[in-house]
Design brief:
Mean pLDDT: 90
Helix content: 10-25%
Radius of gyration: 16 Å
Distance between the termini: 55 Å
Length: 157
Amino acid sequence: MASENIEKYRANAEIYKGHDVCKQKIIEFQAELGFPTGILRLKDIIEFGYNRQAGFAWILQKEKTEHRFKKLGTTVSYDTEITTLAEHHKMAKITGIKSKEFLIWVATSDMYISDPASGKINFKTYTGLGRTLPVSGFLLEDEQEEKRRKEVSWAYM
């Protein structure tokens, strides 16, 4: 089921099984890297593994998932196996994630945040083309609500 790449990094990895545990660990993983915690919207997660020493992470889910980021107007497809080399503010050599651009699916190779203060996240394809989107479009709903409350409270000060 898992690719050779996953098997290569499995020995020294933290491995979690079961949807609820994996979902929480993936949220923690995204936050640890400095990414918005809603960027990986997955269902029926089987396994999440992270080899910190090598920076290699993987996610296995039962079936392919699509998620529409309404705020951004973007649809993203997550394959049954997702892998990446991860470091702070960067996920490189991504496999298993595609976005729909002008009626065609485009594979995402890298995600990175060059300047956290800018509130922007950059996406790159294997062909070198890229796109920059606001980080706020990838926040989980409770984070978005908290952000709105803070903005409202500042407005009344």
